Every structure is written in structure tokens, then in C-alpha cells.
Q: What sequence folds into this?
């Protein structure tokens, strides 16, 4: 794990936004490398416009690309980080001969204690999880928020092994149970069963109801999810369904509002 953690990159840390609000808005979204789910057209400006419309404090993005030829060789990590104008951390998961893609965390507040967990099972597609500790300024107080951005596999047995590996890993076990903690990402949770089987038994709650997020134009499967535990209290969770959110990717985002309470 230490070797892969060295590949974690930080972007845009020269800008600090000392903003404080009464709630915390977290968004998770598989952006499909900026390629539309219906028109199959690459246009990262649509991704950026959706992020600007939602205005989250913390963003968990999957399938963020760097240097892929048919995506103009864009460094999407740098572009998205610059437009977000906060702090960011990225870890590449899939490396090709030219370019690749991975998981990106954006935050309006500083991040530290970054770590990466390899979730690859056998010879299946490379998968991973990125963890970050965020010093969130909410309601006039600084709170520790631990976020996990992950993209799970396509097979049911693979996803179960990946979540079990996460539950048993040191970076997760070191987090105190009362600490505000979020898990979000593309879980490929076809039947919506991963939460009840693996996360709810260890104290997590699903943010919002089980919601269909794929395909974005006409959602049929609840592939994506956001779970939380600790001192977080859910205010609301919703799926942005405005026109641009339905065409910018093949997944819809999930957005949750939280306050910090006691646990």
C-alpha cells in the first residue's frame, strides 16, 4: 500500500477558501471521462457546468482521465481542479500505453493523510480506493471529515471481496467510530445489495433512498451510492436530473447535505 500511495498526486493547493457554512454538501459522480452517455461526445465543459450548478463542498469523481488520445490528451485532473479552485487529490487506476484514468477528490478545504488502497481482485480490471482527511469548516467550527472515493468491479463476488478488503484495511480501522466518515462512488451495485450486506452492519447509513443512477438518460440501475457514519447528520439527499446532468455522463450524480452533530 505504501508504494501505491506514492502515486497519489495533489493539485491546486495554492488556493485556500476560508469559507464556513452551516452545512456540508458532498457529491459523488462517475463522469465517464467527460463523454456523454447519449451522444458519446467528449465535452468536459458539461462536467464543469454540472459541478458549478451543484456547488458542492466535497466531490468524489470517478473515471477522471489524463492524456488519453481520443480525449484530446487533456489532463482532466488539472482542468477540474483549476475550475473547482480548491484542493484536490488524485490516484490513477487504469494505465494504458497512452494515458489513463482514476479517482479524484475535490475539496474546498485542505486535505491530508492521503492513502490509496488497491482493490484489484486477481486478474480483473484494476480498481482502487482513495482516502483523504479533510479539515472542514462548518457552522463556525473545524471538523475532521474522512472521505473515501472508490470504484468497484463488475462481478458480484468481486465487489464483496473489495468491500471486505476495505473494511479490514488499516486506514479505515484507524478512524474512530464517532469521526465523520463518508464512502461514495461507483459501486456497480446492480441490485442495491452492497449496503445491507457489508456497510449497514458496521454502522453506516445510506444517504437518501436507494436511487437509480444509470444510465443517466433513463436510469434503470442503482450503481452509485453514498454512505456515512459518525457525527454526521443527513439533511437531504437528491439526484440532480436537470438536462445537462442527464447528458454530461452515463451516470447521474448523487448529492447529500449534512450537518455535524454528535455520535
A:
Amino acid at each position: 500500500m505504501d508504494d501505491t500511495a506514492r502515486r497519489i498526486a495533489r493539485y491546486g493547493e495554492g488556493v485556500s477558501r476560508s469559507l464556513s457554512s452551516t452545512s456540508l454538501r458532498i457529491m459523488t459522480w462517475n463522469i465517464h471521462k467527460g463523454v456523454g452517455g447519449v451522444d458519446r461526445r467528449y465535452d468536459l465543459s458539461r462536467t464543469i457546468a454540472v459541478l458549478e450548478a451543484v456547488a458542492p463542498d466535497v466531490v468524489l469523481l470517478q473515471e477522471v482521465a489524463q492524456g488519453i488520445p481520443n480525449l484530446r490528451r487533456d489532463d482532466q485532473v488539472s482542468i477540474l481542479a483549476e475550475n473547482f479552485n480548491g484542493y484536490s487529490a488524485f490516484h490513477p487506476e487504469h494505465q494504458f500505453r497512452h494515458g489513463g484514468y482514476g479517482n479524484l477528490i475535490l475539496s474546498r478545504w485542505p486535505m491530508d493523510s492521503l492513502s490509496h488502497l488497491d482493490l484489484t481482485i486477481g486478474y480483473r480490471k484494476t480498481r482502487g480506493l482513495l482516502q483523504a482527511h479533510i479539515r472542514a469548516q462548518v457552522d463556525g467550527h473545524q471538523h475532521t471529515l474522512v472521505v473515501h472515493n472508490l470504484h468497484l468491479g463488475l462481478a458480484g463476488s468481486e465487489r464483496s471481496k473489495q468491500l471486505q478488503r476495505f473494511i479490514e484495511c488499516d486506514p479505515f480501522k484507524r478512524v474512530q467510530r464517532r469521526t465523520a466518515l463518508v464512502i461514495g462512488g461507483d459501486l456497480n451495485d446492480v441490485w442495491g445489495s452492497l449496503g445491507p450486506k457489508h456497510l449497514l452492519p458496521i454502522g453506516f447509513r445510506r444517504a437518501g433512498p436507494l436511487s437509480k443512477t444509470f444510465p443517466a438518460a433513463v436510469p434503470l440501475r442503482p450503481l452509485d451510492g453514498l454512505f456515512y457514519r459518525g457525527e454526521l447528520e443527513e439533511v437531504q439527499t437528491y439526484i440532480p436530473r436537470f438536462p445537462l446532468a442527464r447528458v454530461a455522463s452515463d451516470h447521474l450524480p448523487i448529492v447529500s447535505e449534512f450537518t455535524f452533530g454528535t455520535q
Remarks:
- The radius of gyration is 17 Å.
- Confidence is low (pLDDT under 50) at residues 1-6, 12-19.
